[in-house]
Amino acid sequence: MEYRKIKDEEDQIEDGVVGDAVTSRGVSPSTVTSFPTGSVDRLRWKRKMVVTIALTILTSSQAILIVWSKRAGKYEYSVTTANFMVETLKCALSLAALTRIWKNEGVTEDNRLSTTFDEVKVYPIPAALYLVKNLLQYYIFAYVNAPGYQILKNLNIISTGVLYRIILKRKLSEIQWAGFVLLCAGCTTAQLNPTSDHVLETPLEGWMMAIVMALLSGFAGVYTEAIIKKHPSRNINVQNFWLYVFGMIFNALAIVTQDFDAVVNKGFFYGYSLITILMILNHALSGIAVSMVMKYADNIVKVYSTSVAMLLTAVVSVFLFDFHLSLAFFLGSTVVSVSVYLHSAGKMQR
């Protein structure tokens, strides 16, 4: 989801959930340039600081909130209902953004919700992929701790890049390939466990789930970019709305097949706590924060946020979950941060 928003923000800057006040109010370019240069620079700096802090906090707290929402090692709430609420909140935010656009610009061919079957029929595939990926996100914590998850989820960079090369025939730079190798080395180094008989702290099941999640995320990212290119003029919020609608449908089916009896007997929100609500808000707002980075900041901010988030997650986990911050983890997370930077630099070079 986040990847699709990034690509759309690169291809077209539109007024939306993170719409610029200038574009949303229809101010002409000449009006914008009339502001003093110092004021514009200060405004950009403040925006960059806000989105950097927001993305860092959201990214670092994501895994912590999921683990923290457990009670006695298990989820007392239904993870399928939690996913449904995330999709519902995202859908509501997209609709709110569209309402703002309709008020300012009116309903046009590009921002209307009414559509054709041919346009909508492509959304169930990425929605289904994200459903499985988001459910695995909860179950992987049976094998991986919060800091380990923050490290391993960067594997989706490799899967996305390789799938782009295979499916869309997009050439990768040498720097990006070097970044992929470093990323694998960093993930492995961070998982070294010198205090145990096992070489790696995360068992094979955890690695397999992380790889599957990375493949699902990568394939969904490639597929959704193809959707965007098919209708490039379509407003991002319209595309998000229909994607989230199908996400709600698939999550509703997951509730019926997995947690129907529990929901009927105990209620839809059984087992929910303040931590659960914060976790749902975190998941819904994370994608918006990534879009804000692309609109108000740059790729370096995302790299910085990812790097700091890994260390913040580890430090907080020391106090909350008795995590042991080892030298191997610190070195591994440093290598992962460098590899993420190289991937970003390789994209700019390409």
UniProtKB/TrEMBL annotation:
Membrane listed as a keyword: yes
Signal peptide: none
Transmembrane segments: 49-68, 175-194, 206-228, 240-257, 269-291, 303-321, 327-344
A matching Pfam family: Nuc_sug_transp
Compartments, record wording: Membrane
SUPFAM superfamilies recorded: Multidrug resistance efflux transporter EmrE
Main localisation: membrane
Keywords from the UniProt entry: Membrane, Transmembrane, Transmembrane helix
Membrane topology reported for the UniProt record: Multi-pass membrane protein
Molecular-function annotations in GO: pyrimidine nucleotide-sugar transmembrane transporter activity
Any one of the GO CC terms: Golgi membrane
Family indicated by similarity: Belongs to the nucleotide-sugar transporter family. CMP-Sialate:CMP antiporter (TC 2.A.7.12) subfamily.
PANTHER family (alphabetical): NUCLEOTIDE-SUGAR TRANSMEMBRANE TRANSPORTER (PTHR10231)
Protein name: CMP-sialic acid transporter
Species assigned in the record: Salix viminalis
